[in-house]
Amino acid sequence: MTAPLIKSKQFGLKTPMARAKGLGSAHDGLHHWIMQRVTAVLLLPLVVWLCWSVVTLAHADHAAAFAWLQQPLNAILMIVSVISLFYHAALGSQVVIEDYIHGEAFKIIKLVTMKIVLFATCIACIFAILKVAL
Amino acid sequence: MAQTQATPVKERPLSPHIQVYDMLQITAVMSVMHRGTGIVLTFGLFVLAWWLLALASGPAAYETFRTAATHPIGMLALAGWSFALFYHTCAGIRHMVMDTGKLFTIPEIYKGGYVTIVAAILLTAGFWFAILR
User: Fold this and answer.
1) Whole-number Å distance between alpha carbons of B133 and B57
2) Do B46 and A121 touch (CB under 8 A)?
3) How far is B123 from chain A, CA to nearest CA, in Å?
4) Which chain B residues have a beta carbon less than 8 Å from that of A58?
5) pTM to 2 decimal places
6) Shortest CA gap A62–chain B (Å)
7) Does ipTM exceed 0.95?
8) What is the mean pLDDT of residues B109-122?
């Protein structure tokens, strides 16, 4: 079945689906919803581990904390935590921006800026962990 | 102009707007707090990044981080952040239970809400007791 073509000055020859994709409610919402919950479930045990680690490291000096992160298991769990945390934060921030920023251009600028900043900070965290552990 | 008298304003019935609702009921407050703590936690990720980068940079940078983190203002910020973490985690578990269609009667919603808030407060208190003891 072929989709009906709509010819207009604004959109040219595009199917309704092609016009809607990338705008508003035609985003990949289900994937967003699922990944928000996948990262949430993954973060539950990781948050317990993180809190327990903070309690043990709260009074540690640089050498002790450094030695702790040099342990392969701690470094791996920290990388998984960082990726899950930043991914989950980006998904949540996206919903907040979509809900409260209404101008389409400004909204896209804020969304892209937020994702770039979180992505770059996430990479910086992973780099720091690997610099200590390797 | 022929019409000198102002048209009498008729008191039309208005549809109920948000001000007719109790905005401080637990459902609304918990929803706002889940989002609010999520935003707080996102900003807190930059503190986690600071800690990791300070750890990788060396003892001097790590001492700068520790000085900031153990300063009263830093401790207050971290205490608030830890509460946000525990609240968001507990409320997140409640959200995922509700995703399965459970906890949707009014008494269950209230009970679940209070359990979430009390659990978050107790976890925050326990966490700081473990750190400061």
Assistant:
1) 29
2) yes
3) 10
4) 131
5) 0.84
6) 5
7) no
8) 94
